[in-house]
Write a structure and sequence with these properties.
It contains no helices and 11 strands. With 118 residues, it is mainly beta.
Amino acid sequence: QVQLVESGGGLVQPGGSLRLSCAPSRISRIIFSRYTMNWYRQAPGKQRELVAAITSGGSTNYADSVKDRFTISRDNAKNTIYLQMNSLKPEDTAVYYCNAQDGSLGYWGQGTQLTVSS
């Protein structure tokens, strides 16, 4: 059922940094280099929003709210994608989800919680 696994979430103070990782679950053999990979987040009472995306060709895109603070990257040798989050703000608090998308076919993880608070 669950094809992707996110890790790296936790509690961090405002201004701090954290790196999220996403990898296939133990039952999945998804090869990330074949997909557009995305990070989404959903804060309490808010709709899910796309935070960052990276295509199979390496092109990236970011939500305006995280530009210049977050960086999405992929390591094809490790079959892993990352979201480096710097200068974190309380408004970044959310559950972060990894997504692999190929047209209408998408795979998701269960999410990892990020809490930014002093």
